[in-house]
Predict the 3D structure of the following.
Amino acid sequence: MQAFQELFAQYEWQDIKRKIYNTTVEDVRRSLHKEKRNLNDFLTFLSPAAATELEKMAQMTQRITQQRFGKTIQLYAPLYLSNECQNICTYCGFSMDNKIKRKTLSNGELLLEAMALKAMGISHVLLVSGEANKTVDINYFRNAITLLKPHFSQISIEVQPLQLEEYHILQEEGVHAVLVYQETYHQEVYKTYHPKGKKSNFEYRLDTPDRIGQAGIHKIGLGVLLGLEDWRVDSFFNALHIDYLEKHYWRTKYSVSFPRLRPAEGVSTPNFIMEDRDLLQLICAYRLWNEHLEISISTREREKFRDHIIPIGVTSMSAASKTNPGGYVVDPQSLEQFEISDERSMETMQDIIRQAGYDPIMKDWEVSYSGN
């Protein structure tokens, strides 16, 4: 079977960039009139030329999303397990070279945090940690999942890339989704952002979604860190990756997230500024290209933007998030991975979603409804 690396090697960053920036308004309009669209159409929707058609793109995005997902927004919250990390990453508050207090939740602390989330009505929890293979390894994750399974209907996980056999373990434990971000697909500069640690291995990280797919995990979440490199080019490669995965692991569901660089301890400033209008264009591009793709927005984004995007194209949102281990009750003062922009409560977010005419859903769609 062809691995994604082989397909990825057939594309050049500068060539894709040239195609995006040479796209014309007429190219965009032709893509908008198609009934079925491909990656070339996605590329046109990423272009600066597409900004002139953004209102039409947003209207079409809203209609397609409602037809496919109904007027619902899934709500979830992250539960940070640990801020220990063995990588140096220039953009992350957990980076190994930052002189911060490190913390990994014990069993008792994990349950206290879980009960705080349960009290908010959360049924779908996302477990997140730094990449410290000797401290928070597959045995730690397995133990955490065992402790939490009685309390949540669905558990997703966003941790360091694992081996195939370890993803099989997660699948057997009932993990619903695994999120893994390449951060940037610009291989030539990847090492400058990840100078030390296992994360500096571009190829190993690139192959990770293949391992997740081979393990039969229900859903895979992808994304790039918006602000490291040109968001238009990076997003094309992210879509190329999703397109490849959908063809090879067609029983698996897929989601895309849009983390924008936010302030954090010891991190570099964004190299590329992405405005709210750009992010709206990117969300529309994904939906117009792929009507089945789940689209998630986190509390990194400002309240006004999150409220505005509810009726347009997103399908899930985090709320009341804490991005530090123990942040809900155990150790609220521990260092956050990044600052959040929307600090509103889960109850407030539910009300806002209802006011927009949508239903807040507290867990992901059941596997039995997905055709699996």
